[in-house]
Design a protein that fits this description.
The chain is mainly α. It has seven helices and two strands, in the order E-E-H-H-H-H-H-H-H. Helix content is 58%, strand content 3%.
């Protein structure tokens, strides 16, 4: 199954930090492409699942710094959304990478890294994923 995670993020990722929830797209796009696995493959593996969790927490901290109102259980709700995808689902960024096409690396992962620097919010997991992927992804 293919879903287009990230296509709606064209406005430099601004929609990833909206009131009420954390958009799972940057975290899943980054981890599925980095680990070269579908969403369930990333979430079912301890190392990559920990990476997803760190990225969600970093995005949560960035949202708070930007004044985005999030519910207390935003982290849990975000993980629940991620687990709702059908087995075998790939992010569009992973599919684009596999095809050798341009990816949304800048609009998804790069945006979070830039906003983190701008607001002095550490995003070490996003930075590491971004730095590794920018070497192998077409942008």
């Amino acid at each position: 199954a293919l879903i287009h995670i990230g296509r709606a993020m064209a406005g430099r990722g601004r929609r990833c930090l909206r009131n009420g929830h954390i958009d799972i797209r940057p975290s899943l796009a980054g981890t599925t492409t980095f680990f070269k696995r579908g969403i369930d493959g990333v979430l079912d593996d301890l190392k990559s699942a920990e990476t997803v969790a760190k990225m969600i927490r970093e995005l949560e901290a960035l949202a708070v710094a930007k004044g985005v109102s999030l519910p207390q259980d935003a982290f849990d709700l975000t993980l629940k959304k991620a687990r709702a995808f059908a087995p075998g689902t790939k992010t569009s960024m992973l599919v684009d990478y596999e095809k050798g096409s341009r990816t949304e690396l800048e609009s998804l992962i790069g945006y979070v890294c830039q906003e983190g620097r701008r607001l002095s919010v550490p995003t070490p997991t996003y930075d590491a994923i971004y730095n590794d992927l920018k070497v192998i992804c077409r942008i």
